[in-house]
Amino acid sequence: MTDHELPELPYDYDALEPAISEQVVTWHHDTHHQGYVNGLNGAEEELAENRENGDFESTPAAMENVTHNGSGHYLHTLFWENMSPDGGGEPEGELADRIEEDFGSYEAWKGEFEAAASAAGGWALLVYDPVAKQLRNLKVDRHDLHALWGAHPILACDVWEHSYYYDYGPDRGEFIDGFFDVVDWNKAADEYEKCLDHFE
């Protein structure tokens, strides 16, 4: 059983300002993300104890806690990594070509991604679908509802209220604009290249 740990941020807590404040990054990373790490570890410990004891009464709830907290941990890790104080702009190279191929244009992709981010109760994701062999945008609620089996996240935007209310109040659209100011397209390109290596 893996003992999951909260990853360190790849930049200082105030590095994403003004798009995301130091206070929000601190709360979000140190409290919210840590909570998902703790929840995942606790659920895995419970499952291990149940197997050892042969008592599976609490196992279904523990399994649900694994998917909820595990997805929360994994997506938050990507969320921190796919932002940078040097981010912004548009994708380049193979990822840019693939976005144009699968969505028609960068503008069409971005409009669809923003629609997902505006409506989601959790996350907007750009993923690679290895079955259809194409990029897709997903509107994911919580951390794991409306996800797609086998899809590999390339870009993650957290639209839970704890991500933006302190900075933007109820104006989620302004937060989404701020997110695009700090998107690290190099990280997204790296994730896309992993998909090409594994699936194509």
UniProtKB/TrEMBL annotation:
It catalyses: 2 superoxide + 2 H(+) = H2O2 + O2. Residues 91-189 form the Manganese/iron superoxide dismutase C-terminal domain. It comes from the Archaea. It comes from Natronococcus jeotgali DSM 18795. Pfam families: Sod_Fe_C, Sod_Fe_N. Mn(2+) binds at H28, H76, D158, H162. PROSITE patterns: SOD_MN (PS00088). Keywords: Manganese, Metal-binding, Oxidoreductase. Residues 4-84 form the Manganese/iron superoxide dismutase N-terminal domain. Belongs to the iron/manganese superoxide dismutase family. InterPro entries: Fe/Mn_Superoxide_Dismutase, Mn/Fe_SOD, Mn/Fe_SOD_BS, Mn/Fe_SOD_C, Mn/Fe_SOD_N, Mn/Fe_SOD_N_sf, SOD_C_sf, Superox_dis_Halo. This is Superoxide dismutase. Its EC number is 1.15.1.1. Destroys radicals which are normally produced within the cells and which are toxic to biological systems. Its cofactor is Mn(2+). One of its GO terms (molecular function) is metal ion binding. Transmembrane segments: none annotated.
